[in-house]
Design brief:
It contains seven helices and two strands, in the order αααααααββ. By secondary structure, it is mainly alpha-helical. The termini are far apart.
Length: 114
Amino acid sequence: MASSLKFLCILGMTLLVGAVVDGAGECGRSSPDNEAMKLAPCAGAAQDANAAVPGGCCAQIKRFSQNPKCLCAVLLSDTAKASGVQPEVALTIPKRCNFANRPVGYKCGPYTLP
């Protein structure tokens, strides 16, 4: 009986850990829509290619630039679209922040990171 209970506990933990790992998406455990909420400082720069990019925006984008798949998912998310983000403009932000190690040429849906 004790060994059966131990087996069930181990099986349950294995399934739980497997579900968490399988649940990871482009941005890890957080959804692109949740991550897009953190880009509020980028609102103006994501709508106007001539707008200055605030330092707070560059700091947030730098985090995403390490993971281009997440960056694309965030900038193309429903939350970003509902906020008025223009993807073709938003994708220029890493360049406008002068990031040397940005993912140049990365395909982001129908767009390419400059």
